Amino acid sequence: MNHFFLRAGLLATFCAFLPQAWADSARVIVKYRENSSMLWQTDEVALRSIMSARTGENISANRRINGRLQVVQAEGISNAELISKLSAESDVEYALPDQFRTPQAVTPNDQYFSNQWYLKATERSAIDAIDAWTLTTGSASIVVAVLDTGILPDHPDLNANIVFSSGSLYGYDFITNPVIANDGDGRDADPSDPGDWVTLSDISTYSILSGCSKSASSWHGSKVAGVIGASSNNTIGIAGVAWNVRILPVRVLGKCGGYDSDIMAAMLWASGISVSGVADNMAPAKIINLSLGSSGSCPAYYSDVISQVTGQGTLIVASAGNDGSSVHAPANCSGILGVSAISNTGSKLAYSSFGSEIALSAPGGGACTYAISAPLNTSLTSPGLGTYDYATCVSGTSFSAPLVSGVAALMLAANASLTPAQLTSLLRSSASTFPSISGLSTCTSTTTSVECNCTTASCGAGMLNAKAAVLAAQSYASTANSSSSSAGSGNSGGGSGSGGGGGSGAADPVDILLVLITCAALYTGIRHLR
Questions:
Q1: pTM of the entire structure?
Q2: What does the pLDDT look like over 444-482, one tens digit per residue?
Q3: Packed helices 220-229 and 400-414: angle between N→C axes, nearest 10 degrees
Q4: Active site residues
Q5: Are 338 and 360 in contact (CB under 8 A)?
């Protein structure tokens, strides 16, 4: 409390003084003519005295930039007035205002970017990827494995960022059952998506599909891959979170889904661990995205695989599930970063699974106004050549998880040394605080299948914040060896830490600097980000 009043006192004192001190403050760049006597003067004090006498103004600084260029500052006079006086001097070639520049927000020109509200900062839960892109748009050295239905390799928004080897699509199809695989065989080196449609005939013919429903092809793997790393700023389609990341397609889901045995083998292979009967992966992934799962507790056999994969330095990100209740497996497994889905306002979406196993939450898409956009093929069965398009009304925790995977890829582009535990810790500590929305109940174990206000016990540490996460990754190297920066896992570290507010004592230099900046902005009209 004392610290608060001290800050408030500083603010009041400085802001009371600054209107007079900064009401008019000129900063002008001058170019002198070649024969100007001003160029001979090297003593700055003498230079200020000469300029003050010549202009009749209080010149507070006169510093050489280079050659005949100098910056002149004066108090109690506007830029226009100082420029007028300097321009009247015979040895001045020109005088122009020393303008203030700001970082340009990176706004891609992709066709449907206007629909991608979740990458901006205009909605409460939006991840602010635009500002993160001013720091990095990713790196081709970072590989993200998408363990899903495979990929549409010819899609114009995916092709440039998929892993290729000697001109051929690289990845693997780990589906062992030919019926589920729907491509005429079992495991093979072709991770392209043949479609996962299910017919009534399929259901009646194959016992393995007896519990399934008739459906068209989902192109789910391509949608997930597009959220993570669709080619961006290419005038077509959508923007991915990590523009320059490489996507490693690994096929584990076919008609109706896929088996854990295939999924776990794919996880090991994707991270660079040898799998019997399969050539070693030449492009090991630093991140594995699992937008898949089903209800139930985490099977014991996942623990060994997860520890091996994370031991390789690979982060595993998984979607929470879409039945509005407890977290699905494998997202509820220890060592996996589970992600729940939130609305544009920051509330937990009714369909999103939730619970203490969740690390953080990200937009998942609700009504079509606030849905997720993703690439697909327009065919209802096998992929049609040249019939590529975009779904603009996609929702589910399947699309919350790849937003986190994409941001993790940006973090690794900023700091490639981060471990899975460090990535998890930084994603959590940089997350934005959940809002409390009037009229909604608080999420508890009994508020299943309803929209509710998230807590750190139900939806993780907070809402995914891309810019804050990348900044945290950039700065982590300088604090990595200190005891205060040891990485956490699971839900630890989600609350307030020692670096939070509160405390007492004298104001530090940062406090004073913030006060000065605040007051300066009030009285000089500093331009903001565009």
A1: 0.77
A2: 998 899 999 999 999 999 999 999 999 999 999 655 544
A3: 40
A4: 148, 220, 398
A5: no
